[in-house]
Amino acid sequence: MSEVPYDPSGQVQSTGQAGYAQNMARPGSPGSKRPDDGAPSIIKVGVLGVLYGLLHMGVCTFFLFGGMIVSALASAQATVSQQGPDGQATVSGQAAEDIATIASGVLLVIGILGMLYGAGCITGSIGVFMRKGWGRIVILIYAGLSGIEGLLGLVSLGRNVYAIVKATEVVELSVIIELVWIPMLVTLLVTLLFLAFCISSYKVLLAYGSNFD
To answer: What residue segments make up the domains of the chain, in order of their start?
Structure first.
């Protein structure tokens, strides 16, 4: 019969229990618990950051193309349809062309800045995947901005719901829903993405900050 090891504290422990405790304490043993490095949660934050950046880049692509199209169409219309008898552009035609140029310039600037904004978030997400400290800081900044966008989205949804309630006084509710349910659904999904990115980023990146270089 095997001897029971003596415990100086006055407690007796069986050989099987002692061996199991030693195995649990040994890092490489099958029964040992590995330290939680937060890898799945960090990957989720990185994926949300990529989606956030791609969303902004996709929206700003429309601004870029919209700016170019507005500039081309408005300039052509101002030149062709608003010329004077002597072939020179009238004052109103020149003003229309100037307005179109300014509008297209604004759209192009917004589009370029939005593309850079989205690219920065994707770059930060890559840094998070690589466990880089700079990536963590970049994503925390973007997460704060995303939270602001999410709150603005909630405000927009609330105003839309209020407008729908007021509109039901003169229009059938079914008609209103048929017209607005797709835009409101898109707004809701985008708002949830913004809020999820914000909350997950702060929760995970602050909790596992020591895992970043």
So the answer is: 39-211
Contact 40, 204 (CB under 8 A): no
Among 57, 50, 97, 102, smallest CA distance to 78 is for: 97
Give whole-number Cα distances, 72 to 1, 5, 103, 158, 209, in Å.
96, 90, 11, 38, 50
- Which tens digits make up the pLDDT trace of 25-55? 454 444 444 555 678 899 999 999 999 999 9
Q: What is the mean pLDDT of residues 85-98?
A: 58
> Do residues 176 and 167 make contact, with C-beta atoms less than 8 angstroms apart?
yes
pTM for this entry: 0.70
Closest among 201, 189, 198, 193 to 145, alpha carbons compared: 198
> How many CB atoms lie under 10 A from the CB of residue 9?
7
- Cβ(74)–Cβ(156) below 8 Å: no
